Amino acid sequence: MNKILLGMAGIAALMMASGANAAFKLTIDDSLTVGTDVTLTDLDLDGLISFSNSGLSLTNWSVASNAFGYSKPFYDGSVDDIIFALQSFSISSSAAGILTIELTDDGFTDFGSLSFTSTGQTSGTVTSEAFYNAGAGDVTIGNFITSGIIAETSGPTSVASPYSLTIKTTIDHSGVGSTFFDNTVRVPEPSVLALFGTGLFGLGL
Q1: DSSP label of 81
Q2: Of 114, 132, 172, 194, which is least packed with CB atoms within 10 Å of its CB?
Q3: CA–CA distance from 122 to each of 21, 145, 148, 170 (Å)?
Q4: What is the pLDDT of residue 141?
């Protein structure tokens, strides 16, 4: 009987782990083609999606180096307060075009508030957006439209749990050009207050 219960518990845990990152994906859409050009998912559920120019089929665009999408459990809010990020994205164009990169995941349970930071540089125009959805529609954390040096921060924005997160970045080049950016959603360390409150509760205060 105990073995059956342990087996059922193990299956349940596995199902929960599988569902936790089943929605984590990255898409790339080239405006010169029909539909979404690239869809990458987190097949091993480690919270990391990495990609390079190899295997990508984009009209006038070339990814210069490995780029990374991060989510839980790779970042869980305990490492530099990062929970969700699209980083080291470096891309160049051989002609005019618009490229949209979108990173999304759900099942976040970090509480408190969120901030959004965008850094990098572009020879065109970059629109960086981050928003969450706790079941009542998308709520913007930050929305930046930048040319040249990218150095933007917004927040904190209060959020209820559970929720999904999306980072959407649109690159617009008028011709030959290049863009590099890091886009990061952080939780500004709610854990200290939470632990303090838990300690007081445990002491009966």
Answers
A1: T
A2: 194
A3: 31, 11, 5, 11
A4: 92
